[in-house]
Amino acid sequence: MGKVSRVDKLRMQTLSELGLGAKAIIHAYPHKQWKLSTVQKICHRVDASGSAVERQAGSGTIFCVLAFFISKTVGLSHLKSHNCVKV
Questions:
Q1: In whole angstroms, how far apart are CA 44 and each of 3, 12, 37, 39, 75?
Q2: Which of 39, 48, 61, 84 has the largest CB neighbor count within 10 A?
Q3: DSSP string across the chain
C-alpha cells in the first residue's frame, strides 16, 4: 500500500476531531485498506499539533542538516545525540 494522500489525512483529521477513534475511522472506509498503526499515528499527530498535514516548526530536514554541521564544526556534543543527526 502506498502513501496516504493529503485528502485522506484531512478526512482522518475531521473524523478524529469528531471523536472517532482509529478503528472507527478504518471501519468507516474499509475500501481504503488503511493500516491501524498508520491511522493511529495520524490521529496522534492531530491531537498533538492540531493538524494532520501541516508540519510543526523545526520538524523539517533543514534543522537536522544545520544541527549536523554545527555539531561537526563547533563540536557541540549535545547536538550529536539529536535523533536526526547521524555521526
A1: 17, 11, 10, 8, 35
A2: 39
A3: --PPPHHHHHHHHHHHHTT--HHHHHHH-GGG---HHHHHHHHHHHHHHS-SSSPPTT-SHHHHHHHHHHHHHH--HHHHTSTT---
User: Which grid coordinates belong to 63?
Assistant: 534543522
Whether residue 78 has pLDDT greater than 60: no
pLDDT at 34 over 90: yes
Report which of 69, 29, 81 is spatially closest to residue 42, judged by C-alpha positions.
29
pTM of the shown model: 0.60
User: What is the distance between the alpha carbons of residues 23 and 76, in angstroms, rounded to a whole number?
Assistant: 44
Whole-number pLDDT of residue 47: 82
Report how far residue 43's alpha carbon sits from residue 33's, in angstroms, rounded to the nearest whole number: 16
